[in-house]
Amino acid sequence: QVQLVESGGGLVQAGGSLRLTCVVSGSVLSINVMGWYRQAPGKQRELVAVSTSGGGTNYPDSVKGRFTISRDNGKNTFYLQMNSLKPEDTAVYYCNAFVTLTALSGVRTYWGQGTQVTVSS
Hints:
Layout: E1 3-7, E2 10-13, E3 18-25, E4 30-39, E5 46-51, E6 57-58, E7 67-72, E8 77-82, E9 91-100, E10 107-111, E11 115-120
Parallel strand pairs: 2-11
Antiparallel strand pairs: 1-3, 3-8, 4-5, 4-9, 5-6, 7-8, 9-10, 9-11
């Protein structure tokens, strides 16, 4: 059974940094797309970073230049480095992955449980 386990959230002052970690556990053939999303109270979940298996990355303008997604394929782990944090970055952050379980299974998507990030002003 595939699980995504996040860690690294917490409380930080504006201007500070945090690094989120997402470990993909279970038997997978490959991890294709990895992404981080966030959801603030009363708002829709939004994408904040995505990394493809080819190494491409993409960010919305709201976090571009401040957030960096990276991956360690050997450890089935990916990260979100968040710098220059702002109070408006406060949200629950979720990791997401599209994985191939076997050569015959096709691609499936999984979500982490979420980790709270709170940025104080």
